[in-house]
Amino acid sequence: MKIGITLPNLVGGTREIPGWAATAEEAGFASLGTAGRFAYPAVSDTVALAAAAAVTERIVIAPGWPAALLAKEVAGSTRCRADG
């Protein structure tokens, strides 16, 4: 059985996410996900997943969004950085 865990992107800030991701990988979790809610202040899914990916090697990084919406956000973020 493979078990995943959600990143704490709804509480705190980005500082907690890399440590959480590294600890989850060391503990043997199979995947990391995000809650994907913007109704109140939170770290965006793409930022949380990028922070987790930076400190992990084998754990699967999995957004809670449909792939098309995630791709649209990533494409929009990339475009904004290139223009800025």
Automatic annotation (TrEMBL):
InterPro entries: Luciferase-like_sf (IPR036661). This is Luciferase-like monooxygenase. It comes from Amycolatopsis dongchuanensis.
